[in-house]
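cron nightly-structures :: item 1 of 1
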Amino acid sequence: MARKFVLAAALIASASCLPGDPPGNEFMPPGATDQRSACPYLNTLANHGFVKRSGVAVGRDEVNNAFDVVFNVDPTITNMIFTAALAGTTSSIPDTINYVDLNQHGLIEHDGSLSRNDAAIGNNFAFNQTIWNQMTMFFTTPLITIEQMATARVGRINRQRAANPIFLFDEKAGMTSLGETSLVLMTFSNGSIDGGANRQQVDTFFTQERLPFDQGFVVPTQRITADRVQMVGQKITNATGAGSSIDGAGSATVASSGSHMGFNLATCIVTLASFAWALL
């Protein structure tokens, strides 16, 4: 607990007084033996040393505390996520995960990610600039709106479906996709449920996997909780439109992908155990 408050104080001091990183949590790219995952959130936390920089045997408390301190995400969310991630762990140390394990296709990672390729046709864990460009072409204002994110998400999924002959975007993937896009919007808009994520900060976060303190990033003051994620997910759903077909079968609309049927909290709780690790 003491560690949490020390980190929080350092983050506030850095964001308020200095353009650089908080002392002790400076950005460092991964070394040759360090593991990284398909999730830019986890990768960024490791790159700043909020969890083990190696990405090996990362513990539950590390992850819960890091998401709490850095992104103001309720630990009840990350605790569920961590439990789901343990299903694929190869770590010999109890209650820990290795980052590389999170890249297993279908465990938590899914087709149609925001910034990675599908496992069937490419690298599903490394950042892909071409794919990311397919998202950012819709971000036409300094602050990303819910409508822009909804349009970018549908466009991205449809492009990937056309490229991948075995593309799968079922209800689980649809809900995971909603959760991850909601989290991005909230992280870079001070936790707002109304959109307005800082485009420059989002781009730095994805492309460099670092916290953009030099661009004004601060820890969201509004708590990111399951019910608030639900609210943003429902707004993305409403902005997507009933005519946008993004399911894996190609025969139905957004409804069958979990994107137009309504962002129900009960369903969200089940899939919360997927969305943050699968934030591609």
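cron nightly-structures :: done
The two ends are 30 Å apart (CA to CA).
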